[in-house]
Amino acid sequence: VQLVESGGGLVQPGGSLRLSCAASGLTFTDYHMSWYRQAPGKERELVATIDNIIYRTDYADSVRGRFAIWRDDVESTVYLRMNNLKPQDTAVYYCHARHSRGALYWGQGTQVTVSP
């Protein structure tokens, strides 16, 4: 199983980025997908999540209204659109896949840096 993130980078405050996570080696439609992030010296936190049945989404309070998660089950890819980025959004962003029977997988992470 592989989860490969892309789309991170350096952006100015107020800017936007779109992260992608391409999954392989698993039946994508069986997995609940999420994005987490971890800033230096902080614990990893859940940013956004989307289920695999009714595509229900949920967001951390700190990003609600600025970030959007969606999935393309044909392409086995989950996306995270990040708008109005703030310096406090700086972190390594990780893709996460969770099966209802307990299997868990993580991507390698992609760095997002928000700085003037």
The helix fraction, in percent, is under 10%
Order of helices and strands: EEEEEEEEEEE
Distance between the termini: 37 Å
Rg: 13 Å
Low-confidence stretches: none
Tell me how many strands there are.
11
Provide the residue-averaged pLDDT: 97
Structural class determined from secondary elements? mainly beta
H/I helix tally: 0
Q: What do these coordinates show?
A:
- This protein is mostly beta strands and 116 residues long.
- The protein is 0% helix and 53% strand.
- The protein is built from no helices and 11 strands.
- The strands form 2 sheets. Strands 2, 4, 5, 6, 9, 10 and 11 form a 7-stranded mixed beta sheet that branches.
- The N and C termini lie far apart (37 Å).
- The model has no long low-confidence stretch (mean pLDDT 97).
Q: What's the helix and strand layout?
A:
Elements: E1 2-6, E2 9-11, E3 17-24, E4 31-38, E5 45-50, E6 57-59, E7 67-72, E8 77-82, E9 91-99, E10 104-106, E11 110-114
Parallel strand pairs: 2-11
Antiparallel strand pairs: 1-3, 3-8, 4-5, 4-9, 5-6, 7-8, 9-10, 9-11
